[in-house]
Model the fold of this input.
Amino acid sequence: MRKSLLTLLLLISGAVASAQNDTLRFSVRGVVRDADNGRPLASVGVSIPGTQIAVITNSDGTFVIKSPEQAKQLSFSLLGYRNLKQSVPEANDKVMSVRMSRSSFTLDAATVTTGDPRAIMLLAIQKINENAPDNPELFDCFFRETVQKRHRYIYVSEAVTRVYKSPLKDIFVPDRAAVVKSRLLTSPRASDTLGVKVQGGPTMPVDLDLVKMRRLVLDEEELKNYYLEMLLPEMINDRMQFVIKLIPGVQDDIALHNGLVYIDRETLAFTRIDLSLDMSDPRLATRAMLVREPRGLHFRPKEMSLLLNYTNDGGKTRLSYLRTRFRFNCDWRKRLIATDYTAVAEMVVTNRHEGGRELQIPRDQAFKRSESLADKTFFYIDPDFWADYNIIEPSTSLEHAIGRLKKD
Done:
């Protein structure tokens, strides 16, 4: 029986591993906006050309990127926008103002509609090995998980992690994740206690790398359960993409997914995968989202989505960003008012190291999928806690929430 890769489960044990990071002495701060309307742009990829250092903007369009040497130029990329390179201001205290323009291209009708989406998907699956890295790699990552009760944050978990990825040819060498540094803020109110948590945490880049794992919609047998529709092409990183819509096509004993898959027209590499669990049958959706429903809990699923971004560098495609989002409504029996919860977890790759098996994370330091980051994470109020690491900058609303949790 197929199982969903995204689940909720009861809190269990955790572990923390240590590692060394290069000193990042220089930093650049900025805000990215739409060039036409001035709207802040979230999830913009920000990188330093000639290096593997990267971050993304938060929901306010804000970013801070740190490096061992002073960056002279930054590169910006986002789905539907033209890639942009912009010089860094000489004044270190000056905030960069970045304006990105939407991609504009014209295609004739034949170009838009030509191509069988199922044939393209299957060919892209067959070319995964060709588009995958040939050597082991170690990634520096930043992970954040938040839980909101209605509109109020009750849980913020953050960690710098390292993820080892073996090449596809090394089928007996497992991918592993380890925690370098982490912190946790939780609400002290007894009424905010929640008995469920998003599974995986720091291991998400291992468990949810659908391209490498060839799971869910990238499994040829699983794909038979979907209708596929070709949509208008989009631009990502100034490269044209096939855009294929997935629609559940069969009645099954497990919830399927709606989604969009973006495939590079030249290399047929997967660039972006955006999936959301079909909520039309709450019973099946609940089964997909929960490992076990605690006794006395009424659980009502609202959303379970997964976003994966892949970046092409040197002709090879790698996972660069992922985000999961859960929305659900639950209450305990005998209570009259149900409560809405939203749990969001996201991970961004901030650096990449190439080498051999010496990069592999030792088994005794590896974070297990069954472990919880919360159990072995500590509360920190040091404002320079992340001084030597690239992170996703907290949005204004999250900074406010963290301040409130600290005061509590």
Summary: Residues 1-20 have pLDDT under 50 and may be disordered. The two ends are 45 Å apart (CA to CA). The longest strand covers residues 297-313.
